[in-house]
Amino acid sequence: MKIEPKNKQRLLRVALGEEEADLVLPDCQLVTVVTGEIYPADVYVAEGFIAHVETERPGELSPARERYDGKGRYLIPGLIDSHMHIESSMMTPRNFARVALLHGTTTIVHDPHELANVYGVEGVQYMHDSAEGLPMRQLVDIPSCVPAVPGCENAGASFSAKEIRELARLERVVGLAEVMDFYGVIHGDPRMMEIIRAAEDCGLYLQGHAPALRGRQLSAYLCGGPFTCHETTVSGEALAKMRVGMYVDARESSISKNVEAVWEGVKNNRFFDTLTLCSDDRESDDLLHEGHLNAVLRKAISCGMDPVLAVKSATINTAREIGVAHIGAVAPGYSADMVLTKDLRSLWADAVFFEGRLAAENGVLKAEIPERHFALEERNSMRLPELTEENFVLRAPEGKEQVEVRVMEYISKDSSRTRCLTETLPVKDGVVCLGEDMAYVSVVNRYGLGTRSVGIVKNFGLSEGAVASTVSHDSHNLTIVYFHPQDALAAARELEKKGGGMTAVKDGRILNTLRLEVGGLMTRLKAEELTREATQMKETERALGITVPTNPLLRIVSLALPVIPEVKMSDLGLVSVADQKLLPIFTEK
Amino acid sequence: MKIEPKNKQRLLRVALGEEEADLVLPDCQLVTVVTGEIYPADVYVAEGFIAHVETERPGELSPARERYDGKGRYLIPGLIDSHMHIESSMMTPRNFARVALLHGTTTIVHDPHELANVYGVEGVQYMHDSAEGLPMRQLVDIPSCVPAVPGCENAGASFSAKEIRELARLERVVGLAEVMDFYGVIHGDPRMMEIIRAAEDCGLYLQGHAPALRGRQLSAYLCGGPFTCHETTVSGEALAKMRVGMYVDARESSISKNVEAVWEGVKNNRFFDTLTLCSDDRESDDLLHEGHLNAVLRKAISCGMDPVLAVKSATINTAREIGVAHIGAVAPGYSADMVLTKDLRSLWADAVFFEGRLAAENGVLKAEIPERHFALEERNSMRLPELTEENFVLRAPEGKEQVEVRVMEYISKDSSRTRCLTETLPVKDGVVCLGEDMAYVSVVNRYGLGTRSVGIVKNFGLSEGAVASTVSHDSHNLTIVYFHPQDALAAARELEKKGGGMTAVKDGRILNTLRLEVGGLMTRLKAEELTREATQMKETERALGITVPTNPLLRIVSLALPVIPEVKMSDLGLVSVADQKLLPIFTEK
Fold this sequence. Notes:
homodimer, nine-stranded mixed beta sheet, 16 helices, elongated
């Protein structure tokens, strides 16, 4: 993406001091991410760009239409998030901007992978177009793995090289998003190779996704093309990845806290050009109260990373990683994206400038973000099959009094990993009965294909009623955990009516619903209202027994994610993750 | 420029260890420019790329067709020169490769500015095409300022945005070369803006050239687009440029030794991502005996730069500066350009690999560089007007017995800077007589335009005879310094016959000629022969009084360079550099 002034001639005249600047920020302590220094400076802005940084005679001001006093505070470049999903905030891109800007994030590199699985190209286009005219730069990486595991699940779309080439034409598209199919990359799978080739031809950078990859497999992954990773959770892994030239995007999301481990792994390095910071998935509650990327920096600094290096990692390093020039530094010719802060350790943003205009100040949005209507936001994405209670009954093969059933068992209350158990369960009136700690689970295709599955989950955490969600990575089919088919049916009907979201049911009655009407993933509510509703929903789910230490709403969302070992459910049935195959629910005994 | 394997599938299989590698380098001490570490490693190569770097179990070798033992030596990435002119070596691109490879340079970013001034687009095309199939990557920046000062000199060509767009299509073109017209950039001159726009549209990086630029002018230059500079000679300037985000290409050429000053200026910085090293202009003698870029690193290290940082500056930093991926590191997926060296301080190359093949070993070329014929090399570029002795006589205005003459005076024996003096000189038989330390100078257009000038130079150094050169930056017109018109004429005829070069004349007789038949700038001789001939030529010139401390051949080559203050001669007359205007030789008194 080209970042350039509309009127370069005027920018030059202002730089030379021949013409009045649009804005001057006198009396700043400039954090210079290129040299690592901090020194006094006055910063001049014109046409949305830094025209001049005065350091020889700070205080002797040249004319400017506006003046915003630095008052001796630190001036850092606007923060750049190297990898994140707006959908994880459950907010629309415009409402996400309203809250992220308060924290000094002026550029995000986001992967609209979730909505792509629901609405395909149109979903990516909507996420891209929503950023038009925003006082924040929302750069887009094109989802590379839609669906995540072809053949084992049905999403709302399927991306090949054709879709990549089509979407690469959009103005703010810069990369190919997290190439999760590492197996396809390292083994040169033709579909994956074509997707990578298409991205390279279009000049996109290749964002990686390589959890726990090491040694020769990591080498092959790099030879395949992707050269970044935000999935590093172990110190040794961080160092190993950096040594082979990979960009390590240290992540601190609402779910995965990896910054400490990454920093521990690389802190003794001499160079950190390839270290960046990212938020990946942050819910509205965290965004409001902890912050966005500034919270990630704060964490890094608390782990011992020097604040200047933290700022560098979240600005110029990221700009270089994604191959976008003119962002990431407060220097002449750079977009005037800047943050004033009193404290380089906490990094609360006193004032945030985007393209030279005040966007937020002391936690209050100052830029105007007008409401815009998008047809996609009005549409109900739910295309369920006709359903009856019978659809949610797990019937045993004819004539059996007991059956051997493959059960998906969560390894703990707070992990999304599972084991595949084979359990002997009694049959009553032809129906498989549940054993201890078990519940039924059903995944219903919501894209009009009519596919659905019923199985059994153990150690999920639910103790009564039912919970259901249309946020269900990565295909986002309707996923329901329940004891009684009537509750499952009620949940399905409720979410069908509401256009998606999360619901909790007991005795056939809806207890609470968090409506996510935009693609079944996002709401048009703003952060404050959403947080209020989500908090209520969390309480409802806890009351039904989902007492996970973190966010109970997230317990169900990875139940159908067939890239997390050992088994997961999809709309096609039970999926064995390692060999990407479907397993029959009943074993052949 | 895309750098990618022909057979990616095979590279992946080798990376995974499923197939035999082409080459293994066991027992290396790998210098990792990304993290700044040095550790033992075995390096596997396939398809010209690094397939795998084994660090977990070094020594336990996997199969490979060839083996080259590291013997515990340091393995560094092949060196990348961020800015240079092949023409300065006076060798053809292919012969330049023969010597640069011996020293571990595997990639150069060169600016065929000189030949562009002679042959225009065709000259650039020749320089580009000459690199085809070489065991070295000769990347091209398109000359931005042909001629250097339009209106004050005539070169063999004139480049506008059209030529830039045309040349940008060539495979190995990566940038727009040193944008010397800083005045045009900062004042938004339409021609310069169009050239920059063309380069940006074509995805080229913008190489700068900003000697002594500072403060608001430097800011404007950066806002104008170019973001690198190899013309930094003062410590404070180096720091100032780096602070505003400029890449500083520290130069150590045969003429300009700036590495020490640059390092002194920036050595206290914390980050050095934007520091690179370059050779700019190196003559064959230096190339043979001192080295190429390794000599620049050696100098930097002797000034206190840590060797690992020096290697980083001359590899990955440069790759990022020029926006070329997959070169500059020894890591999976990178081109297998590597150097083995026993000593990280002297950096003499024991073995040099280009794309995984041994190119040079212990100062001997190992790769085959076949002879190739280029029509341009056979052509005589000299298109002088018909000349007689009279053309070299400086005649006074009619009827004068003495005249006030503007004289170009060199400020010292070893500087190319001049002052403009006005001297009163006697006239004899209508001819202006020379004063003390003076000689006549004539610049004759050699591109068929018929323009020529005669003037007076002081403190040049010549004490008898004449010297002449078709190497005469940047227009490379025939430049002659002499006392007697007959010597000037003899010199012109000699160089016309030989197709260009440098010659020395006394009493109408040719003393010695260094033939440079390729565009009047380069010879087809190899480094050893050229050095021998150039050494003889230097002795001849010294005998004529040119006793400069450095290379006497270079005394004349900047006489007609109208970008070095205060005045210079061109084929159109005396040029005032500051205001880019022609000055009459005789003042109006």
